[in-house]
TrEMBL record:
<feature type="region of interest" description="Disordered">
    <location>
        <begin position="313"/>
        <end position="332"/>
    </location>
</feature>
<dbReference type="InterPro" id="IPR050984">
    <property type="entry name" value="Gfo/Idh/MocA_domain"/>
</dbReference>
<dbReference type="Pfam" id="PF01408">
    <property type="entry name" value="GFO_IDH_MocA"/>
</dbReference>
<dbReference type="GO" id="GO:0016491">
    <property type="term" value="F:oxidoreductase activity"/>
</dbReference>
<protein>
    <submittedName>
        <fullName>Putative dehydrogenase</fullName>
    </submittedName>
</protein>
<dbReference type="InterPro" id="IPR000683">
    <property type="entry name" value="Gfo/Idh/MocA-like_OxRdtase_N"/>
</dbReference>
<dbReference type="InterPro" id="IPR055170">
    <property type="entry name" value="GFO_IDH_MocA-like_dom"/>
</dbReference>
<keyword id="KW-0560">Oxidoreductase</keyword>
<feature type="domain" description="GFO/IDH/MocA-like oxidoreductase">
    <location>
        <begin position="132"/>
        <end position="248"/>
    </location>
</feature>
<dbReference type="Pfam" id="PF22725">
    <property type="entry name" value="GFO_IDH_MocA_C3"/>
</dbReference>
<comment type="similarity">
    <text>Belongs to the Gfo/Idh/MocA family.</text>
</comment>
<feature type="domain" description="Gfo/Idh/MocA-like oxidoreductase N-terminal">
    <location>
        <begin position="6"/>
        <end position="123"/>
    </location>
</feature>
<feature type="compositionally biased region" description="Polar residues">
    <location>
        <begin position="322"/>
        <end position="332"/>
    </location>
</feature>
<dbReference type="InterPro" id="IPR036291">
    <property type="entry name" value="NAD(P)-bd_dom_sf"/>
</dbReference>
<dbReference type="GO" id="GO:0000166">
    <property type="term" value="F:nucleotide binding"/>
</dbReference>
Length: 332
């Protein structure tokens, strides 16, 4: 029997304790062995709930021989220095999106992982949900004719004061956070040959970050993608494919709970059909996919650099000045 992948947690963020660690506990072939946090009491609570032992700090966790890979849910602005240190320590890395807040940093880290023979994954869990496979199957089967446009929105209500999304030095802002979902969905549906042809961001000067916006993308066949996102909206998580003869619509596209049964709507002239799809656990699927990638051997994921290029192009198209890069001080 193959030994399980031994995972270290760097930072006890809510997404880790609420979604990823329960998936790790339920997935064969991977186990939590160490937890590091700037708050030792918080790390101890995580260990008591999910197993493993407490590491003194992030650096000590990376030195441990019983850690093969790390999961890194730190604030976005702190990803680059700690991903780099993890790779240099010979650890595989699963990092929350965005991998970094700088295109050159992302390219460097992907190259570094490839040279070292290590798996580096940006944790877009939604792409591992079976509902999207069904969408792409219907598209390929000609259910809506020829695809003409794609539209997607991911938006959430305002967060409490002090939330990391409102902190420029930690990679805050809507573009680096919620915009990632429709941009990644556009890659999934339209393919890798995307260009950003326009973008706008609404900047909140009191907070110092962008809180909403939109991006217009175009693929090689001139199919247009209309992408919207924000941090001050009614919760919305959806996308729509408009074709020459029909339309496919999917709600709860990005963050459905594991018990959610998706409903995919197909509209054609004088005909509406709804597909009730089975529930699926995208978080468990993402964890299993990471463990499988480590077992089967590292293959660079081209979507990571493409995603960073789309974000960078969107920022430039909107005339947005990048957030200040932090010095890598531990946070989490």
């Amino acid at each position: 029997m193959t030994a399980p992948l031994r995972l270290g947690l760097m930072g006890c963020a809510d997404v880790a304790t609420r979604r990823v660690l329960p998936a790790v506990a339920a997935t064969e072939g991977i186990e939590l062995t160490a937890v590091a946090s700037r708050d030792p009491a918080r790390a101890l609570r995580v260990v008591e709930a999910f197993g493993g032992t407490v590491a003194e700090d992030y650096a000590a966790l990376l030195e441990r021989p019983d850690v093969d890979a790390v999961y890194l849910p730190l604030p976005s602005g702190l990803h680059a220095p700690w991903v780099r240190r993890a790779l240099d320590a010979g650890k595989h890395v699963l990092a929350e999106k965005p991998l970094t807040t700088d295109l050159a940093e992302t390219v460097d880290l992907v190259d570094r992982a490839t040279r070292a023979g290590l798996v580096l994954r940006e944790n877009f869990m939604f792409v591992h949900h079976a509902q999207h496979r069904r969408v792409l199957e219907l598209l390929a089967d000609g259910a809506i004719g020829r695809l003409r446009s794609f539209s997607s929105t991911f938006a959430i209500p305002p967060r409490p004061p002090g939330d990391i999304r409102y902190q420029p030095a930690l990679g805050g802002g809507a573009l680096f956070d919620v915009a990632a979902y429709p941009l990644r969905a556009a890659q999934m549906v339209l393919g890798p040959g995307l260009d950003v042809v326009g973008a706008t961001l609404r900047h909140d000067h009191a907070l110092g970050v962008d809180v909403g916006g939109g991006v217009l993308v175009r693929d090689a066949d001139d199919v247009i993608g209309h992408l919207a996102f924000g941090l001050e909206h009614r919760y919305t998580s959806r996308y729509e494919l408009l074709g020459s003869t029909g339309r496919l619509t999917l709600d709860h596209a990005f963050t459905p709970p594991s018990t959610h049964r998706p409903v995919l709507r197909l509209d054609r002239q004088d005909h509406v059909e709804e597909f009730a799809l089975p529930a699926d656990d995208q978080c468990a699927n993402a964890v299993a996919a990471f463990a499988r990638a480590v077992r089967e051997g590292p293959v660079a994921d081209p979507t990571t650099v493409l995603q960073a290029r789309l974000v960078d192009s969107s920022r430039r198209a909107a005339g947005h000045v990048p957030n200040q890069q932090p010095d890598g001080t531990p946070h989490g």
